[in-house]
Amino acid sequence: MQAIRAIFDGNEIKPIEAITTKKKTEVLVIFPNNENKFSPEEARKNLRGLGRGERLTEKLLKSRAEDIRFEKRQ
Predict the structure, then answer these.
(1) What's the pLDDT score for residue 65?
(2) Mind giving me the DSSP string for the chain?
(3) pLDDT at 57
(4) Torsional sign, CA 30, 36, 39, 45
(5) Exposure class string for 30-61: b at 16+ Cβ within 10 A, else e
């Protein structure tokens, strides 16, 4: 699967990144919801504190350790 950015001008979708395939391919076009667009700073501020009590750091470290063990086996 490849994801690229493009511009829709009201009639056509014009890629602004390279497309690696030349064959005829089915694509999925997603239009972002501009109503809820946040800057990265606003997004971080809105997310801050939402995972309290869920031990997310421990879960992340455990998951990363499992990834490292899996990568060493290959």
Answers:
(1) 92
(2) -----EEE-SS-EEESS-----S----------GGG---HHHHHHHHTTTTTTS-HHHHHHHHHHHHHHHHHH-
(3) 86
(4) negative
(5) eeeeeeeeeeeeeeeeeeeeeeeeeeeeeeee
Which residue's structure tokens are 């064959």? 23
Give the phi and the psi of residue 13 in degrees, each rounded to 5: -100, 120
Mean pLDDT per 10-residue section of the chain, whose length is 74 residues:
85 89 86 76 81 84 91 84
Neighbouring residues of 48: CB distance < 8 A, sequence distance ≥ 6: none
pLDDT value of position 25: 86
Q: Token pair for residue 38?
A: 């946040």
Angle ∠(39,30,13) on CA atoms, nearest 5:
105
According to the model, what pLDDT value does residue 63 have?
92
